[in-house]
Write a structure and sequence with these properties.
The structure is a single chain. The protein contains three helices and no strands. It is mainly alpha-helical. It is globular. The protein starts with about 50 loop residues before the first helix and ends in a 12-residue tail after the last helix.
Length: about 120
């Protein structure tokens, strides 16, 4: 998630830096990301954010992700890093933990072979 003009106003301040350098991103896919035009605070939880505000913010972030041409690349980046915070590739940190857990179980059941990335969340 990269920052530009803030379309989403919030009374909460982000708990993480609002802008990432290009070295933090996994590859050239990020230049096509829909989130380049949105406020970083939309994608990252402010400290002490009430539950209703968090759910609303996450839904708004997921709406941006849903129209993103590099959704799968972003998601895979977040799963491979793994990104511990924020909405990446249309998934929250908790949702990414579930996907990673499922991948580990699937890999273990397949005899340790990594699962086909294109078929998983």
């Amino acid at each position: 998630m990269l920052q530009s003009s803030p379309p989403h106003e919030s009374q909460w301040s982000p708990a993480v830096p609002t802008q990432r350098s290009s070295k933090d991103l996994a590859g050239p896919w990020h230049s096509e990301a829909a989130c380049r035009r949105d406020e970083a605070g939309l994608f990252f939880a402010p400290s002490q954010e009430p539950t209703a505000a968090r759910l609303s913010r996450e839904q708004a972030a997921k709406s941006v992700c849903a129209r993103c041409p590099v959704l799968l690349e972003c998601r895979e980046h977040a799963l491979l890093q793994p990104e511990p915070y924020g909405v990446w590739g249309g998934l929250t940190a908790a949702e990414r933990r579930v996907v990673l857990s499922r991948r580990r179980r699937r890999d273990a059941a397949a005899g340790g072979r990594p699962a086909d990335i294109s078929r998983i969340a």
